[in-house]
Amino acid sequence: MQKFSGIAVSGGIAIGPCWIYRPVSVSTTRKPIEDPKPEIERFEKALRDAEVQLEQLYNRALESIGEADAAIFEAHKLFLKDPEFIGAIHTAITDERINAEAAVAETAEGFAQQMLVLEDDYFKARAQDIRDVSRRILYCLNGISLDQFKLSQPSIILAEDLTPSDTIQFERTMILGLCTRHGGPTSHTAILARSLAVPAAVSIPFEFTSINERSEVILNGDSGTLTIEAPAKEIESAKKAQQQWKLVWQSRLKSASEPARSLDGKLVEIVANIGGVEDARQAVEFGAEGVGLLRTEFLYLDFGRLPTEEEQTAIYREIFQVMGNRPVVVRTLDIGGDKQVDYLDLHQETNPFLGWRAIRMMREHPEMLLTQMRSLLKAASPESDLRIMAPMVSSIEEVKQAREIFEEAKTSLREENALHVEKTQFGIMVEIPSAALIIEHLAEFVDFFSIGTNDLTQYTLAVDRTNERVAYLASPFHPAVLKLIDSTIQKAHEKGRWVGLCGEMAGDPVAVPLLLGMGLDEFSMSPSAIPAVKELIRRQDTNSCKEIATEALSQPSIKAVKELLARQR
Amino acid sequence: MQSSDILVTHPVGLHARPAAEFVKTAGKYPCNITVSNLTTAGKTVNAKSILSVLTLGVQQGHIIRIETDGEKEIEAMTALKDLIQTNFGETA
Questions:
Q1: Is there a catalytic annotation at residue B15?
Q2: Which of A164, A163, A160, A190 is nearest to A177 (CA)?
Q3: CA distances (Å), A378 to each of A313, A367, A385, A418, in order?
Q4: Domains, chain A, ranges and CATH?
């Protein structure tokens, strides 16, 4: 028996055959060939096979991840038809008389190098695409088929690392668990595992060579361990633990539908962050009392043009129906120059996170916000509890204008006899320090606030969280960020407004007691985090949480805050 | 032979969908078509090759030179110029 430990990223126990994801490497060493003709034919056949594969991948991606992300496979197909690329490979085979593998790999690498010297990151990223296409052709040349990625039975997937394009190849129902040698708690594998609710561990230092394909393994996503060649006894006890875990999970799900009340009787709202109707169903299943953040960008990205009022209404209505009388907080369009939405007149900006985005587009295009608000209000039924909030607010003028548009939307619908919803609220996101510091003024124009900690952290600490070299600085546990969160809550409460929080922090077990101590009213998180957070809140006493909060706010550093919170657990 | 210098106004320049549209349009004509990026003063490449067009690194505000030579060279030039000037068929 061998046991490896790493980082636990998604809870649960998986027992079953392992399946090792091993991207095969194909030798691309130059070999002289006698007759180029059969080599060209081999290459041409590989091209046709690659095209069929890409077609299949595209269709699959379309179903599972949507058109925008599926487009990558369309682009790959175009590479296969490129006259210069194909021409250069032909020349290498015919004139230099080298094998197809070397011709493909060398030509592709030549183009990749040319992309890598370009300034723009987009062009640089295309180098990866060329290498990906090259790998596919090499596989086809050697008859390595896509079937190797098809799991014949539900398995625990072991891999070096997994990228989004790797994972697209697996059927969801075939994944028992995920385990990688690389990656951290925020890696793609971790995020994917949590959203699929499958056990997962990363940074597990196993050796591929020491594991037999399809042998029975045990993956514990709570302790972050992988056991191979486990004796029958070990498997038996793992199975018992798994049963136990399932019971706990079921009772968790059951108790998740109950409200979250602390030991001393304080009731808080536990709601979900969602991005569509599928998430809404999952949220209800996991015990969400409502939605704390409905992102609406997908509508604008999916259509490829401005969605009409009718189109938006139909989609919102579907989501509202799932949520029934539960409150739903909707964030209006939050998009900027970091996204490619050609029709929105978004220019590529050198600093998109500080640029023309989100509510800032309202000055030039108030009609866009009006249409969205009308669609939302129209889609809500008499039983709905609809709360609309504006993102990226930095000044009182923006709040006033957005509120006016909200009122205009309501008035116009009322005149048309198309307003059926009775309970509505208007609020703003607090994610820019300038907004957090003038809460008492903004409170005059809103019914509620929702703190977006991901952006608030980025803007307070001047850290681009997508920049890996500085991302380590981005922590909502920085005392400066905590102070802004705390003062937002206190000032809002003084004015009688409620406050929610919809960043990743709300679902972080370490942060929950702290936020509870600050008096946060609503916690919004990914649906799968809800059962555990509700359980955690039921074990808290708000008075001791207040003490923790007071102490945390007086700490000098992220490290000191984290140490303090770790001691409390 | 036809030659024309054109300012690329599309926000993403010549990559993603615009690059694909450009190459697809060029591919419809039998004549030879080349393109170069005058702003970066780089090489001249085959306009029917997506990879080559991408290596030009054309961004918004760059000026490109298109040359068409051979059968249907006038039609090809008109089609490519139209494509760029109408912002690749998108309403901005």
A1: yes
A2: A190
A3: 7, 16, 13, 6
A4: 2-20+171-251 (3.50.30.10), 36-143 (1.10.274.10), 261-568 (3.20.20.60)
Token readout for A405 is: 């548009």
- CB atoms < 10 A from the CB of A144, how many? 15
Q: Do A340 and B49 touch (CB under 8 A)?
A: no
Pairing state between β A260-261 and A175-180: unpaired
**Annotated catalytic residue within A18, A140, A179, A502:** A502
Of chain A, the end-to-end C-alpha distance in Å amounts to 33
A343 closest CB neighbour out of B13, B16, B91: B91
Please report the domains of chain B, with CATH numbers, ordered by start residue.
2-85 (3.30.1340.10)
CB contact under 8 A, B51 and A342: no
- Which is the catalytic residue, given A182, A188, A365, A420? A188
| Residue A499 and residue A449 in contact, taking contact as beta carbons nearer than 8 Å | yes
Ordered per-residue pLDDT tens for chain A, 569 residues = 889 998 888 889 999 999 988 777 788 999 999 999 999 999 999 999 999 888 877 777 666 555 555 667 778 888 999 999 999 999 999 999 999 999 999 999 999 898 888 877 677 767 778 888 998 899 899 988 665 667 888 999 999 877 655 666 777 778 999 999 887 776 657 766 776 778 999 989 988 888 888 889 999 998 899 999 888 999 999 999 999 988 888 887 888 889 999 999 999 999 999 888 877 888 898 899 999 999 998 788 777 788 999 999 999 999 999 999 999 999 999 988 666 677 777 777 888 889 988 999 998 899 999 999 999 999 999 999 999 999 999 999 999 999 999 999 999 999 999 999 999 999 999 999 999 999 999 999 999 999 999 899 999 999 886 666 777 788 999 999 999 999 999 999 999 999 999 988 998 889 999 999 999 999 999 888 898 899 999 999 999 999 999 999 999 999 999 999 988 76
Q: What share of chain A is helix, strand, coil (3-state, %, to 5)?
A: 55, 15, 30
Q: Is A413 exposed, middle or buried (0-12, 13-18, 19+ CB in 10 A)?
A: middle
Q: Look at residue A175 and give its three-state secondary structure.
A: strand
Contact B54 A115 (CB under 8 A): yes
Encoded tokens for B12: 């993403």
**How far is Cα A437 from Cα A444, in angstroms, rounded to an integer?**
14
Which of A73, A74, A118 is the best residue to mutate to test the B interface, defined by the most B CB atoms within 10 Å of its own CB?
A118
Distance in Å, alpha carbon of A133 to nearest chain B alpha carbon = 12
